[in-house]
Prior knowledge:
Chain A has helices at 13-20, 22-25, 30-56, 71-95, 105-126, 152-185, 188-197, 205-238, 250-277, 285-315, 319-330, 334-346, 354-357, 360-387, 402-425, 431-436. Chain A is an all-alpha fold and 477 residues long. Chain B folds into two domains: 1-180, no CATH class; 265-365, Cytochrome c-like domain (Cytochrome Bc1 Complex, Chain D, domain 2).
Amino acid sequence: MAAETLFAGPSTAAGLDDQVLAVPESRPPLPWWLAFACAASLAGLGLACMAYTVYTGIGAWGNNRPVVWAFDIINFVFWIGIGHAGTLISAILLMFRARWRNAISRFAEAMTIFAVMVAGMFPLIHLGRPWVNFWLFPYPNQRGLWPNFRSPLMWDVFAVSTYFSVSLLFWYLGLIPDIASMRDRARGWRRNLYTVLSLGWRGAASHWLHYEKAYTLLAGLATGLVLSVHSVVSFDFAVSLVPGWHMTIFPPYFVVGAIFSGFAMVVLGLVVVRSTMGMGNIVTDRHLDLANKVVLGTSCLMGYSYLLEGFTAWYSMNPYIHHTFGNYVHGTYGWAGWVAVICNVLVPQLYWSNRARNSLPVMVGVSLSALAGMWFERFVIIVISLHQDYLPSSWGLYKPTPVDFGILLGSFGMFFSMVLLFARVLPVVATTELKASLPGSQPRRGPPYGLRPPPPARPESEPGQPRRAVRPEDRHG
Amino acid sequence: MGERVFAVLGVFAGPDALLDAASKLEGRGVGKLEAYTPYPVHGLGEALALRRSPLAGMVMVMGTLGTAAAFLFQWWMNAYDYPIVVGGKPLASWQAFVPIMFEVTVLFSAFTAWLGAVFLLCRLPGLWHPMLSSSSMPKLTRDRFALSIESQGRDFDAEATREALRDAGALETEVVRFPPAPKPASLTLLLGLAGAGALACVVAGLATYWTIKVFPTLPPMSRMLQQPRLGAQRSSSVFAGSAGFAPVAEGTVARGRLPYPFKTPEEAAVLGNPLPRTKAVLAEGKRRFDTVCRVCHGPLADGKGTLTKAYGASPADLRTRRYQAFPDGSVYHAIMSGKNAMPSFAKALTEDERWSIIHYLRALQRAADAKDSDLP
């Protein structure tokens, strides 16, 4: 397929509906059931391990002094990061008018929601007593206590819960007109269900005005949010005094890493959606090529961050930071540092080649490598920094238990179960948005979609002539 | 089909035809115009002379409110209602409040944008809106465009309106009516609903009771209560004599618990105050005196305490010459063994505290009869 084709899908709005909305209306094929069975079994394993942890206490994990944060927080940071690509695609690329986002935004947003849901479980089970998780929130209580708002852990509570709420609102707002389309194609109980889910959306012109304004506003808000969330997650580390954590590079470094791993996951998911659901004409090679370019760009930024981390360690003249950085490359866990560097920085350099960027096996391989690399990067940051800090008398090693691995595998199972369910229940492509940008979908006398119109020539209004509407300024632009 | 007419609908094939028709009919006084499209069509709002969405202003106001609220609640909680000192930093350190101020701003703004647009401005959900039962609706969420002229009252002429829409280029027209009014609910249905409501209340009450009273007592929630410990008035199998504490080893004396062998104030007079007369000792003496002695002896040791009346006892005025001449050891004996109506305070005070109280008492006595030479 030619890499230049941005959109090769149906050229009419009706054709788009017939292709995309037909998926949730049909019965899933056998491969879907097989994939879902695998994912759901893994999710079951993860839930069982979590239940075991909650029942026995976090002694079921390998965490202990001095490595008190381990798989739980690594997984949390990893999954929050995966979510970032969705918001980036849906919000920031919308603000930049990168039209290629339309075909993949819905899927990426859904991934955000599921990734944040998975991520949110980790701080909860990390509490040890998750049934009192409401203590995290400031609520008036008989003990007269309030949480400490100077703690980055409190910032985290607010950042992650805001991120989840706003992503959900944004995603649902985009879904409303699509669900209305599904409603009007369905019968029986499905019709009633979709009527409720679409809130009785009827596509009135006066509603679209508010709808589009709300969508743009939410995109603007989410843009600021996506940059803030992983910055706040990085504060959990950077605001502490642990050598290797206490660095000003952390917020941008975390945000870049999040976008890098998130895009790798988006590419992986899109490859699966394309090939199993016959969406190759809507999600074209060009989309994957563009997403892979983002992976390449962020991978180079990751390399820069690693170099800068080394530079900061050297420039600090601080023996503790020197020691920690030494551990990153040749300590007990030094191999993890090299895994991170190779997977995150070296392997994605393949993408400088056009052929690599457009080859399905290569992009699956690079995406998997990026995901593994980013998981190990968090392992490096958390475990290596903690296992040897200031006092040699309190140094120690960390060894995960089978329960740790069960929960890690389970998190992937839960994520993919939700992604697979979503792919069969709701439209994976934002049909309404695509319809609005099809050729001929907008009035000829108006400006092309997303472009600023020429200054309007004011027509002389004659008496008796219907009042001619002023041409739109840039309501969309 | 005797139901009231909601509107007359003209269906168009494309956005250009829709926009042309809208411009043609807008301002002609045919009735209230509305359009239904599968996706936002540019220029439609202007063609129908719709007012701009006030959403941005609403979001601006609520977002600002969010910033202010976040700052105020953090300041009130951490600097005022429950001040927490962290690393000696100032209590109202606004810099640390910025991340949460930002998050709450976004949260308020996003909810305002969503709820404001969907519920307030679009007046959704409209699950029983007449348009949803229109036979054209499935086309309108797919790829067709409609212009509707809404009925303004009894003298609405549906046929003339259809004609006007056809003239404006509509491919087909439809008269949309309100859905038939639902039948009045039967008594059985109402009773059933009331019963279901009552049942829901009972279930909610039981669930709340279970969550608050039963759930925390189940394992693993109850693990904190199941630690090895000795309850009050329970006998232990660990130490001899079923005691909860290890008995004092024979031939040893606990720190600060020297045996007190004296029986009378005269015998105890041999004791001397071991503490130096420093500011710190006097301050400690005052603190303990105010806690333990003051309620009966009064703040000045003049026997005018607040408890005196209630008990009918009259403690001595300790400032008199008789008590000024009392040796330190005898005062110590009074604290240890009691005197007249006064019980022993041996258990309420440590040895050093008793002696510091005596220093403080001497200061009070001297202050009651101060001379010019006492002034510094």
